[in-house]
């Protein structure tokens, strides 16, 4: 089981299952949402994600149609996103997890949108858009 939370500590969550399809997303929306070169996200089954505290502070912003990013209203930490068409999963921002995780990133997505000051220097596959078989468990 993994646990994590936001910067101010109000929002706390637990993950009971594995984290799948971890990707670095370099798209412009993720860059703005993180204030950084990319977001690192992984898929967790919605029924294996438990909000332990701070539900009243978790605020959603629909960053593109049908996709909502949730963040802590007090400290701004990005926690997860949900896609309307994929209600059985949530995409967790890995930097908010406190535990050591055993899974590893598998790909760079939207690599063609990356910031011009960023250099991707590992050997993971790079995709122009979403990774193949996105959404599949
Ligand atoms: Zn917070
Ligand atoms: Zn993105």
Amino- and carboxy-terminal Cα gap: 18 Å
Count of structural domains: 1
Approximate strand percentage: 35-45%
Radius of gyration in whole Å, from Cα? 14 Å
Gross geometry: globular
Report low-confidence residues grouped into runs of 5 or more: none
Give average pLDDT, whole number: 96
| Total count of strands | 10
- Strand adjacency order, main sheet: 6-7-8-9-4-3-10
Say what the CATH topology is.
Metal Binding Protein, Guanine Nucleotide Exchange Factor, Chain A
CATH secondary-structure class: Mainly Beta
Main beta sheet strand tally, sense and closure: 7 strands, mixed
H/E order of the elements?
Answer: EEEHEEEEEEE
Bound molecules: zinc ion
- Tally of alpha and pi helices: 1
Structural class by helix and strand composition: mainly beta
Description of the molecule:
This protein is mostly beta strands. It has one domain (2-113): Metal Binding Protein, Guanine Nucleotide Exchange Factor, Chain A, CATH 2.170.150.70. The chain has one helix at 28-34; strands at residues 2-5, 12-15, 20-25, 39-45, 49-53, 58-64, 67-72, 78-83, 89-93, 107-109. Strands 6-7-8-9-4-3-10 form a 7-stranded mixed beta sheet. A hairpin with a 5-residue loop joins strand 7 (67-72) and strand 8 (78-83). The protein is globular and about 35 Å long. It starts with a strand and ends in a 28-residue tail after the last strand. The mean pLDDT is 96. One zinc ion binds at residues 6-8, 10-11, 72, 74-75, 77.
